Amino acid sequence: MGADIFWNRALRLVLETVDRRRNPRQLSGVLTPGVLEVVARLYTSDYSARKMGGAAVHRTHVQAVSERTAEVCATYTRGKQTFAVAGRIDHADGTGWTVTALHVV
């Protein structure tokens, strides 16, 4: 799977989890343990943006840093508000791509 396809899939899974439509445990193969912990905290918190409605991905971008690393970003909307997310994905033999850093704004 290419980096761009992985990032789009991973982002949608993360946003579904933040919106409480998916359990964080389902992301264990997609996110590193540290990133999974952050998403799990958003899942259990009273995340105020959630009240604006479900997240809808608007635009995504993948910039290769090397053959095995890419920096990623995206915009998504909740109602009329636009939000951003940025991160890093890394590829490892045998496991494929993994989100290794994530910042949800």
Structure summary:
By secondary structure, this protein is an alpha+beta fold. Helices cover 27% and strands 41% of the residues. The chain starts with a helix and ends with a strand.
Structure description:
With 105 residues, this protein is of the alpha+beta class. It has helices at residues 3-18, 33-44; strands spanning 55-66, 69-78, 81-92, 96-104. A four-stranded antiparallel β-sheet has the order 1-2-3-4, covered by helices on one side. Strand 1 and strand 2 form a beta hairpin. The mean pLDDT is 92.
Largest sheet: number of strands, sense, barrel closure: 4 strands, antiparallel
Alpha-carbon distance between the termini? 27 Å
Radius of gyration: 13 Å
The residue-averaged pLDDT reads 92
Helix content: 25-40%
Order of helices and strands: HHEEEE
Strand element count? 4
List low-pLDDT spans. none
Helix- and strand-based class? Answer: alpha+beta
Strands across the major sheet, in which order?
1-2-3-4
Proportion in β-strands = 35-45%
Question: Which of globular, elongated, flat, extended, rod-shaped describes the shape?
Answer: globular
Number of helices: 2
Keywords for this entry:
105 residues; four-stranded antiparallel β-sheet; 2 helices; 4 strands; 27% helix; globular
List the helices and strands and how they pair.
Elements (H helix, E strand, L loop, with lengths): L2 H16 L14 H12 L10 E12 L2 E10 L2 E12 L3 E9 L1
Antiparallel strand pairs: 1-2, 2-3, 3-4
